[in-house]
Write the structure tokens for this entry.
Amino acid sequence: MEALNLTEDELDALIERAESGRLADGDVDTIKAMINAVKVLSRAVSDKASSIKKLLAMVFGPKTEKKDKVLKNRPPGTRNQDKSTTIKGHGRRAADDFTGADRQSVTHGDLKHKDTCPECLKGIVYRLKKPGRVICFTGQVPVTATVYELEKLRCNLCGMVFTAKAPENRTGRDYDASALAMIAILKYGCGFPWSRLEKLQESFGIPLPATTQWDKSETAADLIYPVFRELAYQAAQGEVFHNDDTTMKILSLMKENKDRTAGERTGIFTTGIISRFDDGRQIALFYTGRNHAGENISDLYRKRDAGRPAPLQMCDALSRNISEAFKAILCNCLTHARRNFVDEIDNFPDEAAYVIEMLAEVYCIDARTKEQKMSPDQRLVYHKKHSGPLMTELEAWLNRQTDENLVEPNSGLGKAITYMKNHWAKLTRFLEIPGAPLDNNICEQSLKRCIQHRKNSLFYRTEHGAFIGDMFMSLIHTCRLMRINPLDYLVTLIQNSSALFKDPSKWLPWNYKDNAL
């Protein structure tokens, strides 16, 4: 586009000629050039607004991408959506949810089962199956301590001193399995920096220096690391893999970057991998270093038993998330495609809302398959019947936008449509293959543990420290996925370290209770 240089007087003269209907030679070309300039400027402003929105989401985190929030300023959609799968609001938790709480039975004093009713003096009272419940909460320091003051007796003749023995013959400063496990969970499971825990413990009169916390975490890791390797082997046998990565800092590698030549990789990443099985098992693995997600999942694939069928791999469309060495059926994340339209809701409200509402129906259908606990084959049939027509309609709409030039290809909406069309087959695997997931949300949620650690603790000092962090995060998050108490699990591993080294396959989250002493 040629530069258009007009003075203020020339612009005023052009406006006067346009109002009077007497345009001079060249005025039409000038007006066209001005209109094109406005279009380009408008698109640039829209793209900038979307970029700023994305930047704010990266720095502060997105507020929400839920449909009702994204479309809050729009009238209700006209599409017939099934509201039966609406997620219930937050409220009180049922007493049965407190699986880790101590439980005490409280009985009547004099009144017993099958006694005469003290009210009417005629009937018989019977014990109900469901008792009444009162829940009492107490607070305590994360890591507590007991000081044993050992009595000392000395002979007045020979001077021999006799010191009483501590319980279980403990000596010096003894950290039991629960203390080691709690330190690791606070750090790697909750993102609690050691310096913050040090100050908290100090304020309660139970000092726990940051250096001691690291030392004890390393001690615990030395006792249980074979389980991490076994967990990776088991994960390699999964039916569905989810993978993604995020940036991380390792000071020792950052120092090496100064000496690396041009073209050598300087980035540092944490890869999250979720391996899922048809029997309900889910395994989380984390790897931190210079490798991308595709390289890490390729290394994991080498542990896979020969002869097993190719698994499904769910990730976004970035090339670094895949590897030619990892022979899998590739699926792309529908949420990533949807997010491109969420970013454009302010610039193209009608078009973006159409896509968001259409995909919301598909997710409602998928939620019903989970509620009804359908098998992978049943789920596929159900999606083909109910989601298939929706996705066909959406595909036709996407094609119409580009074929009929209804959208500017370089606009944010145009790019969102192009992305979805280019990856359509991989975005719709759930209509072709049993068990294919819709999105990579489970992996993105797991990576929040690493991001939380990065925000609070900022970095790992060495690759060894990163390995220990990856190990504990993998074990802790696997427990959460399997709804297992991570404290109980880590305590059991530490207490049974000798047996664990002999056969780590017996000490995984889903079978450790069968082998615990």
